[in-house]
């Protein structure tokens, strides 16, 4: 052609809408290559991922990731260290914190000084469920639902659980104003 242009390009199509005309030029090479690339990638992708390909699949991947994360977090101890509880029972600050928890959540059933109301006397050496530190902790944590003692493990924070246990242990030998008659078996440390 006289202007040097390829005869295959810049050829006007025959239609015209509202004065708009268009060429029928091929897509640029870079665009076609990119497009072909995405098609090839999609095939590779399908065969690498998921139940379709040779990957493990997103559910297995999710479970593997969750297991790895769980391995990083130490499991919450259900068993507490008895000697730590005993030490806390002698620690003024811990006992004070425990008393606050006790006044809020426990006094309604065990009396404001632990002497017992609906619930048993917690100041004597007689225990229905054991008076060892870990037994007292366990009773508080798991409760005795059938007998009207709620479980506290889920509603109290771990530090509230240990401090209220320490407070209960610190009550040993105290003289409540209106003590309930002893129940259970004697416990001697
Ligand atoms: C709704 C009433 C109620 C509340 C609130 C309650 N308790 Fe009790 N608790 C009981 C009853 C009833 C028992 C006796 C269970 C039995 O007979 O087996 C008991 C038993 C216990 C025992 C075991 C006593 C033993 O002799 O073995 C401990 C320790 C105890 N409670 C601590 C607590 C603490 C700490 C709280 C507060 C965080 C609390 N309780 C809140 C009713 C209650």
Summarize the SSE layout with pairings.
Blueprint: H1 29-48, H2 58-72, H3 82-89, H4 92-105, H5 107-110, E1 126-127, H6 133-142, H7 158-170, E2 185-186
Antiparallel strand pairs: 1-2
Helix pairs in contact: 3-7, 4-7, 6-7
The structure holds heme C.
Heme C is lined by residues 105-106, 108-110, 118-120, 122, 127-129, 136, 139-140, 144, 147-150, 152, 164, 168, 183-184.
Q: What would the principal axes of the Cα set say about the shape?
A: rod-shaped
Flag low-confidence runs: none
CATH superfamily of the largest domain: Cytochrome c-like domain
Secondary structure: number of strands? 2
CATH architecture assignment name of the largest domain? Orthogonal Bundle
Q: Report the CATH topology name of the largest domain.
A: Cytochrome Bc1 Complex, Chain D, domain 2
The H/E string reads HHHHHEHHE
| CA distance, first residue to last residue | 110 Å
Instruction: Count up the helices.
Output: 7
How would you describe what is shown here?
The chain is mainly alpha-helical. It has 2 domains: 1-73, no CATH class; 82-186, Cytochrome Bc1 Complex, Chain D, domain 2. It is built from 7 helices and 2 strands; from the N terminus they run H-H-H-H-H-E-H-H-E. Strands 1-2 form a two-stranded antiparallel ribbon.
């Amino acid at each position: 052609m006289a202007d040097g242009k390829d005869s295959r390009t810049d050829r006007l199509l025959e239609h015209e809408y509202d004065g708009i005309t268009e060429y029928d030029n091929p897509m640029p090479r870079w665009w076609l290559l990119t497009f072909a690339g995405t098609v090839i990638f999609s095939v590779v992708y399908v065969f690498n991922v998921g139940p379709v390909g040779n990957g493990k699949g997103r559910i297995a991947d999710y479970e593997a990731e969750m297991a790895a994360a769980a391995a990083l977090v130490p499991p919450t101890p259900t068993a507490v260290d008895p000697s730590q509880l005993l030490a806390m029972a002698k620690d003024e600050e811990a006992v004070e914190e425990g008393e606050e928890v006790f006044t809020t959540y426990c006094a309604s059933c065990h009396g404001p000084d632990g002497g017992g109301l609906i619930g048993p006397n917690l100041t004597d050496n007689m225990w229905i469920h054991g008076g060892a530190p870990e037994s007292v902790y366990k009773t508080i944590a798991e409760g005795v639902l059938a007998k009207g003692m709620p479980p506290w493990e889920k509603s109290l924070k771990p530090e509230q659980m240990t401090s209220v246990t320490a407070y209960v242990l610190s009550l040993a030998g105290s003289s409540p104003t209106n003590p309930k008659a002893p129940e259970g078996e004697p416990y001697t440390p």
